[in-house]
């Protein structure tokens, strides 16, 4: 039994099922991020937790109490909306305490709670203003204040940062993370931004097409994506997916591929499983993160399975902190992340080192990871 | 400044402008002429009207016709002037406007934020009431008013106007609230506000422009209505419009044109006042929702 239990919850509109048997247990103090492309059902799931949408089947429980059919205001949850949804006719102070007022909390208690929250979020000087007079970042704080003041069991965030400009978004991201570390609250957070998901969460549920594709810690999701969708959705630039042929030689397993000019190259798997060996002679998809392909000096020194492939540099894209280098492997464009000062020139032929400890094989038929 | 406008703006020829303004001026004068004649003749003794030109300014200024129209003229059986009928109209228009506006706001709120199966169809049917000609419902309406004992009363007229007004007021509020962010309603729900709390505390305070539009529209229509007034509230319960007609149409005695003019202006004043006070919100309210912000 978790703190927030989502038990085989489904959602259908008429005959269209938009959410298929979602099963997630959230522990107290966890920061769960639901991430996926638009239309994947993540916001629907959040609204079902909030009680704004009915659950078609299954159940959702908070602190062991089944919440099906319970009114949103009686679930002891608070929600931060994408548009912030501040009441335009009320001052910031009124906005924050409106929920307490509706729950029949006395004025003196309300004012004390307002003072605490305003101090925590540093919005004391804004309390008498109307939402229309605030900047985007300030509105965001007020919206969080409105959620915090209720001291709810679960916080729900619905893409709260997507209306902010790039710099403010990064700042607010850090701030939300700080707040979570300080208060230790349970948070369910919806976003389509995979970086937000990786940076904020303690666990991530990657969703697509109404299914939870993978549920795990950011590291699990990033290092061992369970299928091709998760592999390509999480990470930027996304994982390189190269067609290779499996070749078993005794205990060693090789991935045979070609370089840019068509000459053959063989990459030895770090710790081949028995299942992988059964793919002998078949073509599979090999997923390699850009940072696992580097120049020889930038290779991970702790890795015992560095493989080198000589191929041509096609394009270099200096991005300040890194340089992205495009080459061709197995007939596919491949992006390598190198140090900013790596000495590479387009057209130059050089050794690319591949960290095979980080390579993930996928079955191209089922699109699932070969365990 | 002049340089900037000449260089940057699209230039219209001087001659074109001259013609344009002249034509506009002529039209403006043409439309103002009736008002001018009404005002001028309402402050003249009757002799000056019957004996001379209607357009001339009065030689003797007198407010006698105004006083007479207000409190002495023979409208009904008694020589009461228009005063009691003016109050009849006020007693009719104020509750009718308030009730139809509040009901329209509630309808709009439900149709956009608490939608149910068939909401669109229901809204379509309500819109239909905007296009039903008054004449069609006269007989059924008279029958209903008779059945519930409101025939010939101001209360009956209020009911008729509320029923007719709901179509338009619902249309206004539904379209206004359709652009109102639903997330606000959801946030209020999570905050624990109920159906009416959300309506009073969140929706209505943000509905200023559309309330003004609705009030102006309803006030003008209900105040100016003649057909329902004449059909359902004759005699001492008649509204201003019917009383004015009775005053002007009276077949006994001399036609006192100056008194008629004064009476006509009195009948038109409240709507004029509403336009002057709230007119700028009218345009703003009609535009609201079409442009964001």
Overall 3D shape of chain B? globular
> How many structural domains does the protein architecture of chain A include?
2
**Which segments of chain A are poorly predicted (pLDDT under 50) over 5 or more consecutive residues?**
none
Report mean pLDDT of chain B, rounded to a whole number. 83
Oligomeric state of shown chains: heterodimer
Level of helix content of chain B? over 70%
What fraction of residues of chain B sit in β-strands? Answer: under 5%
Mean pLDDT of chain A: 89
By DSSP, the count of extended strands of chain A is 21
Task: Pick out the low-confidence regions of chain B.
Answer: 1-5, 289-293
The CATH topology of the largest domain in chain A corresponds to Rossmann fold
Number of strands of chain B: 0
Ends apart, CA distance between termini of chain B: 30 Å
How many domains of chain B, as an integer?
2
**CATH architecture descriptor text of the largest domain in chain A:** 3-Layer(aba) Sandwich
The number of helical elements of chain B comes to: 14
Which strand order do you get reading across the main beta sheet of chain A?
Answer: 6-7-8-3-9-10
Number of helices of chain A: 9
The most extensive contact between chains is:
A-B, 22 and 16 residues
Tell me the structural class of chain A: alpha+beta
CATH architecture label of the largest domain in chain B: Orthogonal Bundle
Please give a quick description of this structure:
The complex is a heterodimer of chains A (371) and B (293). With 371 residues, chain A is α+β, with helices and mostly antiparallel strands. Chain A has helices at residues 42-50, 92-102, 107-121, 136-148, 166-183, 194-200, 218-223, 228-233, 274-277, and strands at 4-13, 16-26, 31-35, 57-62, 65-66, 77-80, 154-158, 186-191, 203-208, 211-216, 240-249, 252-258, 264-268, 283-288, 293-294, 306-312, 315-318, 322-329, 332-339, 349-355, 360-362.
